[in-house]
């Protein structure tokens, strides 16, 4: 579905061009949930922006369904961490969710909005303004807006990074259900190791400078996953350990970003 071959990205820095990503090679299969991890500044957001055609690569090739990515491909939708600035405060929840499908006729648009709101559990709040909702609900509105477009690929950049632990866990489970229901291919950037292992079919860790894929790991934990039972499994703990090690943590060291 998505293929990244020998990708490199160079960006302007204070002292001249800086090579951020180099030789990045990976693929994401249709319907797969792949998380991208890496320490702060390793290039996760840059990689996601390039995959979504929001930023150009300096070298290499990216394809989506076999077609070269040179701008945002049809059916590839990005969800950002910053829900507050992604929603239009003067539009109701319903009209925010409809934002990406305004060209459709009204009955199709209404049906898709209803479906997307139901998937994120916000059917009852469709007439409200986003600023009246909690942070978790606002992020669900942003996800519903993406889902209403029926994306082939959902690119998510730390979508739950600003939420408290309980809200985050509940949105992770909702996203799991949505992924299962829709079969959407998801690339998910996070710095949260537990979140990545819990949600993913596979995860990749960016490392080095310039960064490339330092570790690619299958996550064969059974689905549906459960916040308590899955996280108590020995294989979950082993995967978590392996990822922390790849990120440079040592046993007994406190987690850092
Ligand atoms: N527009 C830009 N111009 C120049 N350098 C940039 C630009 N955007 C990002 N960078 C640099 O690219 C590097 C990677 O940034 P990026 O945001 O992709 O990392 P990240 O892994 O997502 O970080 P974080 O986890 O902190 O969000 C950083 O050194 C950053 O300073």
Write a structural description.
This protein is an alpha/beta fold and about 260 residues long. It has two domains: about 1-75 and about 150-255, Rossmann fold (3-Layer(aba) Sandwich); about 85-150, no CATH class. It has helices at about 45-50, 85, 95, 105-120, 135-150, 165-180, 195-200, 235-245; strands at about 1-15, 15-30, 35-40, 60-65, 65-70, 75-80, 155, 185-190, 200-205, 210-220. The radius of gyration is 18 Å and the shape is globular. It starts with a strand and ends in an 11-residue tail after the last helix. The relative contact order is 0.17. The chain binds adenosine-5'-triphosphate.
CATH architecture of the largest domain: 3-Layer(aba) Sandwich
Q: Write down the secondary-structure element order.
A: EEEHEEEHHHHEHEHEEH
- Mean residue pLDDT: 92
Shape category = globular
Which structural class do the helices and strands define? alpha/beta
CATH topology of the largest domain: Rossmann fold
Q: Spans of 5+ residues with little confidence (pLDDT < 50)? A: none
Radius of gyration: 18 Å
Distance between the termini: 30 Å
Spatial ordering of strands, largest sheet: 6-7-8-3-9-10
User: What is the helix fraction of residues, given as a range?
Assistant: 25-40%
What is the CATH homologous superfamily assignment of the largest domain? P-loop containing nucleotide triphosphate hydrolases
Subcellular location: Cell membrane
Membrane topology: Peripheral membrane protein
GO molecular function: ATP binding
InterPro entries: AAA+_ATPase, ABC_transporter-like_ATP-bd, ABC_transporter-like_CS, ABC_transporter_ATP-bind, P-loop_NTPase
């Amino acid at each position: 579905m998505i293929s990244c071959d020998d990708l490199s990205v160079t960006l302007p820095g204070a002292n001249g061009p800086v090579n951020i990503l180099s030789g990045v090679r990976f693929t994401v299969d249709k319907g797969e949930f792949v998380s991208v991890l890496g320490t702060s500044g390793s290039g996760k957001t840059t990689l996601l922006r390039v995959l979504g055609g929001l930023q150009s690569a300096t070298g290499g090739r990216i394809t989506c369904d076999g077609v070269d990515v040179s701008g945002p491909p049809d059916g590839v939708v990005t969800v950002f961490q910053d829900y507050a600035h992604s929603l239009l405060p003067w539009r109701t929840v319903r009209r925010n969710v409809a934002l990406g499908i305004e060209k459709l006729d009204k009955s199709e648009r209404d049906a898709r909005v209803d479906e997307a709101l139901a998937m994120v559990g916000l059917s009852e709040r469709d007439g409200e303004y986003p600023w009246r909702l909690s942070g978790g609900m606002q992020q669900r509105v942003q996800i519903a807006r993406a889902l209403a477009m029926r994306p082939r690929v959902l690119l998510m950049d730390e979508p739950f990074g600003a939420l408290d632990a309980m809200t985050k866990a509940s949105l992770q489970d909702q996203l799991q259900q949505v992924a299962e229901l829709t079969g959407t291919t998801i690339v998910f950037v996070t710095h949260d190791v537990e979140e990545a292992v819990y949600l993913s079919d596979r995860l990749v860790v960016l490392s080095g400078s310039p960064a490339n894929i330092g570790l690619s790991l299958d996550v064969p934990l059974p689905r549906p996953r459960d916040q308590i039972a899955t996280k108590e499994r020995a294989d979950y703990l082993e995967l978590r350990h392996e990822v922390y090690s790849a990120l440079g943590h040592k046993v007994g060291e406190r987690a850092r970003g």
